[in-house]
Structures are given as C-alpha cells and as structure tokens.
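Hi P.,

Sorry for the delay on this. The queue was packed all week, but I finally got your sequence through. Input first:
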Amino acid sequence: YHGLGSFKNLDQTKWQEVGEYGNLLVAGDYLVVTTGSKAMVYTDVETIRKEFIQRLTQSPPSPQAFLEHGDIMRQNEKLVEAADSYLKFIESAHGDPRFEKKVHDVKTELHEIYFKRGNEAFASTDVRQHETAIDYFRAAKGFSFDEATFAEATRRLAESYERVATEKTDPAAKKAMARKAVEEYQEIVERSR
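Then the structure:
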C-alpha cells in the first residue's frame, strides 16, 4: 500500500485458535492480521488523520469521506472528532436523497455522542466540567430522535442546571440556573400532555 519495499516480513508462525489460524504482517504504518475467515487492519489515529486530510478538505465536500472519518473516530472513542465529522456529513449531504436514511442514523449517533460526553462531564469532579455538561446535554436534546431520548436529554440538562446552580456563589447566577432547570422540567411536562 505504501510502495515497494514497505512490507516487512515477520516470522511466518501460524497460531491455532478454535477453528482459526492467522498471519501477522507489518505494512508501513499498518498492522495486518489475517485469519482463515477475515483480515483486520490496525493503525494509529494520526495515520488515519493523514489518510483522510485530502478527502476532508476537498471541494466540493465529500459526504462519504466525512461519514467514514466520523465512523472511524467514533469506533476509536475520539468523540469530539467523530461529532465534528458527523456534523460536516449532515451539512454536505443536505438535500441529497441518497443520504437521507444515513443522515437520520448520524443524527442518532450524534445524540448518543453528546449524551455520553454530557454524562462524563456531569460525573467529573472538576466543577468547570459541570457547565460543559449543560452544553453537551443541550446538543443531545437537539439531536433527540423520539420522545424518550428527548425526555432523557432534557431531564439530564435540567439536572445539570440544578447542579451548576448549587455551585454558583452569586445569588443572581444561582437563580438564573435554577430558573433554567425549571424551564427544562416544564418542557418535559408540556410535551407529555
């Protein structure tokens, strides 16, 4: 893949698992593992970034490149990069009927990413992260795809406002955060009617 002579031969020992055997090959920045039924390719995130840079910056934008990059970053728990690529996918695929279902799937994925990041920030011992949780839960709410995900994201957003309100020292800031919490809870009640 990376040119002549970039493949490195390793000892050709095969291993036996239940119904499996395989070989290991180093190819440039990639580790290739082959078994009797599949081939797996491993690399680091920096290599992925280098591989995708031209596809992600081309004009006109490639929805497929953003989608693939987002999927790879999501699988590797690089949630911020995944969310960024997914948002660019949605923008570049807007109005293209070929991507309609995939746009819906990506919005669902974005909801899950933001919700997970919100929970991580909420659980942090760093008080500054609690305000970040508000941003993540607000984004998760924006990508809600049904009543249950909307209610859960809104409830967590309200809880975050409550928590931040208790951490504020300024009475006006406390009151403002508490008011926002109440507004979020009221929205859940209103939508359930």
